[in-house]
């Protein structure tokens, strides 16, 4: 791993995103719009929005980051850009960490926007500290990025990368505790839920929302999310192909 190369890759990705206004709008604005839509849906029952709103701050950024990252990485490989990059003194981990760093910076902006709107415009009721909620929201966005990078290593086309979303993210969405509390799931599904990263992302956000901060359990869930991020990046580096067959 070469930090100089990693930062160069991150700068390159950010330069590309700066020219792609639609993608930036999707990454930064879309999670806030989706949370606002959910608030509107539950306008007559605000207590329901208060119950699920925190979890949405984990789910929406992760899903959107997953889609954009997986497709963007596939485009690099299918266009031959990745093959040309690997003619330089650059390892697979440098490439993946550069992408992860660039999207982590986007995740900071994304989290700042969606958390601010949820708390101050939509009056989401939380008893924890806003900065902790923001930190967890950033981690959740980076989790989606890491899973997207991992999924792209197994796809051959951009269409296949999009197809990965139902396989990778939808089961996590169903079992993460957003729809049904995880301890109310059947035993088998609860066991599956216990090994899915989005479950811990939702638990971390939910813990902060109810006032159980980093020193009272939410920090452990956030560390588990971080461990999943690192594991996904390591596995992606081991499986990433330099070109599309």
Automatic annotation (TrEMBL):
How is it placed in the membrane, per its record? Multi-pass membrane protein
| Transmembrane intervals | 24-42, 54-74, 95-121, 133-154, 222-240
Q: Where in the cell is it found?
A: Cell membrane
Family matches, as InterPro entries: ABC-2_transporter_component (IPR051449), ABC2_TM (IPR013525), ABC2_TM_bact-type (IPR047817), ABC_2_transport (IPR000412)
User: What keywords were assigned to this record?
Assistant: Antibiotic resistance, Cell membrane, Membrane, Transmembrane, Transmembrane helix, Transport
Q: Does the keyword Secreted apply?
A: no
Q: Start and end of every ABC transmembrane type-2 domain?
A: 22-243
Q: Which family does it belong to?
A: Belongs to the ABC-2 integral membrane protein family.
> PANTHER family recorded for this chain?
MEMBRANE COMPONENT OF ABC TRANSPORTER YHHJ-RELATED (PTHR30294), TRANSPORT PERMEASE PROTEIN (PTHR30294:SF38)
Q: What is this protein called?
A: Transport permease protein
- What organism is this sequence from? Kribbella deserti
């Amino acid at each position: 791993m070469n930090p100089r190369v990693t930062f160069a890759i991150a700068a390159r990705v950010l330069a590309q995103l700066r020219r792609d206004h639609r993608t930036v709008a999707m990454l930064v604005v879309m999670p806030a719009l989706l949370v606002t839509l959910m608030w509107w849906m539950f306008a007559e029952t605000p207590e329901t929005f208060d119950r699920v709103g925190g979890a949405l701050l984990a789910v929406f950024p992760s899903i959107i980051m997953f889609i954009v990252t997986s497709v963007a990485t596939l485009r690099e490989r299918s266009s031959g850009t990745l093959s040309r990059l690997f003619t330089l003194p650059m390892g697979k981990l440098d490439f993946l960490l550069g992408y992860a760093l660039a999207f982590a910076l986007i995740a900071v902006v994304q989290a700042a926007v969606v958390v601010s709107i949820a708390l101050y415009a939509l009056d989401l009721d939380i008893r924890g500290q806003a900065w902790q909620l923001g930190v967890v929201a950033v981690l959740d966005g980076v989790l989606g990025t890491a899973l997207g990078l991992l999924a792209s290593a197994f796809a051959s086309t951009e269409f296949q990368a999009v197809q990965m979303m139902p396989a990778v993210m939808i089961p996590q969405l169903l079992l993460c505790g957003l729809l049904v509390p995880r301890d109310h799931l059947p035993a088998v599904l609860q066991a599956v839920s216990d090994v899915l990263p989005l479950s811990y992302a939702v638990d971390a956000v939910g813990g902060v929302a109810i006032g159980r901060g980093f020193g009272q359990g939410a920090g452990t869930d956030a560390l588990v999310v971080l461990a999943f991020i690192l594991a996904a990046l390591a596995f992606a580096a081991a499986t990433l192909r330099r070109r599309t067959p």
